[in-house]
Specification:
two-stranded antiparallel sheet; disordered C terminus; single chain
Amino acid sequence: MAERRLSSAERRAQLVGIARDVIATEGTDALTLAYLASRAGVSKPVVYDHFASRSALLLSLYQDFDQRHLADLHAATAHTPPDLRRRVEAIASAHVACVVSQGVELSGVVAALAGTPALEKARRESERRYVDICRQALRSADRAADLSEEAAIAFLGAADALGHAAARETITPELARSTITTVLLSLVNVTPDHGVGPSRPGSAGARFSDSVPP
């Protein structure tokens, strides 16, 4: 029986999966379009039909990481009770889990694309979508909660740094999660007009010791 021909979407997904495996096992430098074709058992024109260049392939890998990261974040917050602290903890856990599981491969892709306008555009769009999901999760838990633009920048910087430190095993994932939780809680602005006092657990005014597990 003849093997079923893959659709264009299926072939692209297959190539992206193989490319991720190459980066994970052999490093980013090993990934070329010719090598990808060889690993996939297809001709080079098949790969070029999906990726016009190595940079285009790497950008697709970054976008694939991003889509899975956002999907994991959305799922984590959607399945968390509408409690501000619980939502913040879910955001921190999802972030660390994603970076730890994808950190090595993603770092290689980002390094290979460093300085390219396409990557910078993709990163800006990714950060905007990420912050939007976080804001929605926080507001649906507490309608008075908000995250300003400058607070979002500080949160993303801290979360990425802590996540990558956990991926490198410089710190434990547990410590990364608890610290991200502390940082985000300190940055969330809760408008007092809605009767939310600064000492409320999970509010922006929560004490540092309240945010760190014993």
